[in-house]
Amino acid sequence: MGRVLYARRAVGATCDFCLILASRGPVYGTKSDAGGDGNKYHSDCDCVPVPVKGRWVVDDSPRGFHWEGQDPGYDFETLYEQEYKPFWQENDTIKDVLKRRRAAAIKPFEKKRSVSHGSIGDQLQKLEKSGALYKKECKSLPHALTGDDIVGRIGQRDVTNGSCGSAAYAYAGNRAGLDVHDFRGGTSQLFFSTSGNTGAISKIKGIVSWSEETRNEITSVTKLISKMEKGKEYILGVTRHAAIVRKTKSGSLQYLELQQDGAANGWKRLDIPTLLNRFGATADSFADFGEGYSGRVDLISVESLKENKEFLDLLPYINT
What we know:
Blueprint: E1 3-9, H1 16-22, E2 48-58, E3 65-69, H2 76-84, H3 94-104, H4 118-130, H5 147-154, H6 164-175, H7 186-193, H8 195-202, E4 209-214, H9 217-225, E5 233-237, E6 242-247, E7 253-257, E8 266-269, H10 272-277, E9 295-301, H11 302-306, H12 309-312
Antiparallel strand pairs: 1-2, 2-3, 4-9, 5-6, 5-9, 6-7, 7-8
């Protein structure tokens, strides 16, 4: 029963605009309407139009209807609950929702203060109870590992199109002495790769981090890395990629590649070409959204992550 409709499946680290569109589920009548056939909604968008057959059925739920039909390959209902519904008011347009999300964001470069991780923890527990996500407890490592040891354990070619964020979290977990691997796809990959959840993790009480809402990611990354101390490790997240980064004792900037084969993983030079080509960072990549829309850049201290119990309690949802 039903007809073929299209959903917009988010891939990798995804901007707020695309998360909102993905949360709508299969509502597009054609592939082109869903952003395919050269009709991308903004530059550098890598969302995928997914055809599914089914129908929307009116019910008495808060949303007012539900989908009956083929699965588009991601949990759009959870996305709706997390990324759209909290910022929606009656008669809102998508621009209104985006504006309200931006207003809720912290000010640029404001040090994150006392914010409980309860909301993100509750979301993960809800997904677990629904059967969409499982926990695998992280055992203690028998001895401390070097950075190279950890790269050898968790570095491999990315097969889930978006495990960059959770790979970085797994690295921090290993730094904390926990046996954590990140080789999942599905709901775990989607949850931990979204910029909104990266922001939520950065707000956990005790975690040291900085953030900027930006239309020019290159400029914002340059500002954020000036906060880095020599010899310490951080997670740098832009709209399309996240990775461990560091400033060496000599002042050189490096990022940690964890998503290639074998010897191709390890510390690499971090410079403007790398930000453009590996991280997908751009200048004014959100111009198509209109005045006032912005992406997000985060810098999170690995040292503060590995010492934070609330963060470490999230890792069983990544562990494979």
